[in-house]
Amino acid sequence: MRIASLSDFLLQRIDRGGKAGTPRKAVNRQIYQVIREAILDQSLPAGLQLPSSRYLALELGVSRNTVTYAYDQLLAEGFLESRMGAGTFVADTEPERIAAAATPDRAGATPERDAGQRIHTGLSARGSQLVGLAGVGETQWGAFMPGVPDVTQFPNRIWSRLQNKYWRRSRADLLTYSCGGGYLPLREAIADYLRVARSVNCDASQILITTGIHQSIDLVARMVCDHGDHAWVEDPCYWGTRSVLRSVGVHTVAIPVDGEGMQLPLEDSRHPPRLIVATPSHQYPLGMVMSLARRRALLEYAAAHKAWIVEDDYDSEFRYGSRPIASLQGLDAHDRVLYLGTFSKTLFPGLRIGYLVVPGTLAESFATGLSELYRCGHTYTQAILTDFMTEGHFASHIRRMRLVYAERLRLLREAISFHFGDRIILTGGEAGLHLALGLPDHCDDIALCHAAGKEGIVVRPLSRYYLRPETARRGLMLGYGSVPDERIRPAFDILASVIKAHWPEWQAQAGRGVPALEPALG
Amino acid sequence: MRIASLSDFLLQRIDRGGKAGTPRKAVNRQIYQVIREAILDQSLPAGLQLPSSRYLALELGVSRNTVTYAYDQLLAEGFLESRMGAGTFVADTEPERIAAAATPDRAGATPERDAGQRIHTGLSARGSQLVGLAGVGETQWGAFMPGVPDVTQFPNRIWSRLQNKYWRRSRADLLTYSCGGGYLPLREAIADYLRVARSVNCDASQILITTGIHQSIDLVARMVCDHGDHAWVEDPCYWGTRSVLRSVGVHTVAIPVDGEGMQLPLEDSRHPPRLIVATPSHQYPLGMVMSLARRRALLEYAAAHKAWIVEDDYDSEFRYGSRPIASLQGLDAHDRVLYLGTFSKTLFPGLRIGYLVVPGTLAESFATGLSELYRCGHTYTQAILTDFMTEGHFASHIRRMRLVYAERLRLLREAISFHFGDRIILTGGEAGLHLALGLPDHCDDIALCHAAGKEGIVVRPLSRYYLRPETARRGLMLGYGSVPDERIRPAFDILASVIKAHWPEWQAQAGRGVPALEPALG
């Protein structure tokens, strides 16, 4: 699609708020993002001249600063280029986009190259990229926010009782800075849990208590990667992984996934990565399980090339109808796996407690690095969590929630089936807290999510999780964990009508079946 | 001093534990650190051949792996070099050490250069440097741990009451992920506080809630600095500042301090820094206040060169006997200051809540960066803290603790005076929670602290806070905040005898006065 009028194109896609309950993004960021997407999908082709910021501001009815901010960001990141006396043009980024798998992805390639232009915004090139490509949403609750458990079912009273026990008397060791890998009794409780529930080979000395997956990845990236090192990440992957890695100078190399998980380009050993980040138990966001053959190949490759593997095991406590998948770490005979987990999904995200299991040889260095970089604390919370685990509340909360989520998944599937029959492909529904719902390639999933947001439905576009825009599949990430049973059908009814409105063939082809995404998502 | 026998030298300095109550560092790290210090102070001169790891292990009575680990780290960092077939030698690092002010300091200069050697430890060059130069201690409580408030005086009951109020009913918004800059009512309470107490110009939209000074500096470094950018830091400075900056690829340039604070090399504008980190209200660790002339010069320099200033205002709530010093941020007419504060000193460190105040133009980007990088939460704790502040408990706790700390400072000064009269120079005692006690240049403050540790006294060597070892002054950092009144004198009595034992002239010159550190520390 070529865009005839940039201002019309923007007017259709920019939300200037007004509607209650829909927190909006700042208009300057929206302009930035819409133009960026349009450049990436070539709706705005290289060489096209953009209207002046003054003209565009008038057309959009916004202040000129708002437009200038967006233009400056895009200039700083190399999406636009300014030609002296002539105006602002879409830059030619095509050659870089052709370089595909096993080369650093476009956006992460050279954060420094535009350092000269960063004066515009006051941010560094990496800061500007971080904001421009941010994956975090401005809403963190509601149907169908993915990746969020039902925090209203958390056993407050039990937690509160344990909390009061610790607060009754002051214990200096729980209130001051922590050091080493965290509160030892908690590390012991986690090691016990992981050995049994996830077949992780570890003892307490290998466990580090972090504030969650982000801090764990950040620590790993700084401890084992230098600036310019390559990390293989699944494509699509979790936005946090790529943002954290890039912000510490690690180049993310997009590795495609298929039905067996990450498709390692094992024949290419010219540029072995320093790090390989994978979600073997439940690929994020698509949900497939990495096959045993792939697991073995991955472990062998890492051992042979001295690469470290990060196993992000973010939500595999919740698996419905099939046996839990054992961890990759448990298979590893060469101590190459760094295993990541979190209590964000099993208890509540605001707790900010996660853990990192490292090989014994790295344990002491990682513990020092953790204290040195983050100056940790929260030991009183770690003590409460220890009791929560050792008294059995953790295990029983997981058991209870597994039933709750299984029922919600059933209700959501039923709602989807009611509206779309089998004409829509779902993946990821064997475990976790979300489903990925596939849409045809020409469906604009970003516009769809935007429209859904206006109806009060939080939903994330699948294409945003891809590193290489040219291979991005369209679809929706639907979280069901936090949606009360009785809210699932009504919320999906609203979403279904938005989906149908953004699916041009829907009306025409109704009853005939719509081309689906089997090969890519299966 | 030349070292005759490396094994004897190490045996004298390595603690293999055994004594109760003195947590010890792993022997491999101790060996690493002792050798590193000796190379830096030239006790082990360049070109000297080291004993083989097998021989040294035998002499020390440790496993060979223990020695190999230390050697490998030192090789990876370039302190040692391995000559094929000949053995291991002290590397010639002299030329780099001569480059002084306004050039990146030695250790931070080129973290990548040894990337080829990092296979030894499995760590990256930056990870290895982080561990090798770690400033964090393994003990965080006890006389005279610096930088720690008396957490036993925290009003538990009030906190517990507020906590129970929030835990009684589940509020999903407090338990899930947070987004933006943190809990808005807390940002408002902090803005109100800072405007009045610290003369900071701000409103709530400019406040970002972080987990403390470390996260604040980390966010700033990634948002406004790229890899290879220069940051000016005071020399001496807080170890956390330099470790965090280096770990994200920012070169730390050591700027000396004198009685007026940071001595800006303003005439040198060939390499303006991207960032200038200062502690204007209470220089860390020496304690002087930056003069107004210097403040103005710093602000002008930053405005002219588009540098960002980080004002680390870590403990200026506690100022005794003189008026509080207004913030540098409040003087700034050009929006170049990023202001950092924390509740670690005013409430308790384990709380992990700090704040960052940024210019309005950066606020939105920083809020996005904060959520994107760290995936924040802890909103329930932020809500409790809000009530604690708005109900007046925060202000009254500070008032009460100011009296407590003033009395402890008096007791500590009295104890020092009893043992040393006026023959020892003290600085930093007008504010905060610690004193810096100066020692003659040939006193080995590291060995002294080590010996004090064996007597159960936690104390930190001043020389460790310097970036340029050749200018490091010797002394002790004495925290008095967390030491009960009645414990101060007995603890200092023990420390005094350790000091005297490490001060060769003490006995000889007793009564005549010992050369002091006036110019450097004053």
Automatic annotation (TrEMBL), chains A, B:
InterPro entries: Aminotransferase_I/II_large (IPR004839), HTH_trans_reg/aminotransferase (IPR051446), PyrdxlP-dep_Trfase (IPR015424), PyrdxlP-dep_Trfase_major (IPR015421), Tscrpt_reg_HTH_GntR (IPR000524), WH-like_DNA-bd_sf (IPR036388), WH_DNA-bd_sf (IPR036390)
Classification lineage: Bacteria, Pseudomonadati, Pseudomonadota, Betaproteobacteria, Burkholderiales
Keywords: DNA-binding, Pyridoxal phosphate, Transcription, Transcription regulation
Annotated SUPFAM superfamilies: PLP-dependent transferases, Winged helix' DNA-binding domain
Protein name according to UniProt: Transcriptional regulator, GntR family
CDD domains: AAT_like, WHTH_GntR
Family under the similarity heading: In the C-terminal section; belongs to the class-I pyridoxal-phosphate-dependent aminotransferase family.
Domain HTH gntR-type: 25-93
